[in-house]
Amino acid sequence: MNAFSFALLLVVALIAPLLSLWKRWGIPIVVVEILIGLVIGRSGLGVIDPADPTLSFMAGTVGFALVMFVAGTHVPVGTPGIGNAMVRGGMRAGLIGVLAVPAGFGIAALFGTDNAWLYSVLLASSSAAVAMPILQGVPRRDDYLALVAQIAVADIACIVALPLALEPSNALVRCLGLAVVTLLAVGVFAVLKTTADSRVRQIIHDETRERGLALELRISLALLFVVVMVASLFGISAMFAGFMLGVAVAAAGEPRRVAKQVFGLTEGFFGPLFFIWLGTTVDVKAAFANPQMLLLGLVLGVSALILHASMVLTRQPFGYALLTSVQLGVPAAAVSIGGALGVFREDEAAAILLGAIISLAATVIAKPRLKSAS
Q: What are the transmembrane regions (predicted)?
């Protein structure tokens, strides 16, 4: 990645937050960032090469991990009533998962592909990375906690299921990797919790604040990317490592200053970089070149909206139900991992990402309805 590409990414990343200052602009920032990526990437002008090793590492690994880490820290683990909410949200996520299986197999049969289980996982998935920021500022009443729990459960379950659906022959290795990453996250939680009031933590806290060392931030980032590195050894996506560590930190209680620093680092640079890069990876032209794959993308996106919206039958507010249909991390990881494994062709990968982009339309419809639903 040269200086021109880097400067261009920083400049275009300003467009989304500037547009958000206009109150009538109802599209979430992340959606605008992905659309910007579409314009400057493979689908549009082609001035940014998403396959550039430096860019793909900074955005697809570092940015992805940080975005999912921040999303994980938004899960209200210690909030009163979260246990009951987990049951309600988990049941809805499970019901959608059950419905997604025949839908996924039906879509695979209709289009003559061998990726029925992958489609099922995609249809059942939710995106904490998109939904959690949108939910900031929404009153936490009624079904709110159940909604957050549903999104978290669906995200984690589909992240776990994704490598098994893509490469069932290596299921044992993938399951071992998932277990190791989970144990590491539990270990981080245990250390943070037991040392919360220790003398050493207090010294580190005082010194880093007085001398501007940002030591707590450095430790948080070091822990995150050690876990990401371990996950990569087992072929596990950085999204799982980031999200699990974020949940662990949220459960232990992250210092407010460190939370602001990580949030600023992510939202100020790595988050926009990831979402714009994700947009550049989508080759809509490849999907349009094959009408069958274009139709596949449309069917995947619309099917996800319908499946999740059906939860209104369980008395879930319509805005909440629609928000759970948003896909992002799981389709992105599917294309990244599946492309490396040769599971599908480039036009099918484009169709999967196109389906995810269509599901993002749910945010535009759901966002105005969230406060009234609470």
A: 6-22, 29-48, 54-72, 93-111, 117-135, 144-165, 171-192, 262-280, 292-313, 320-343, 349-366
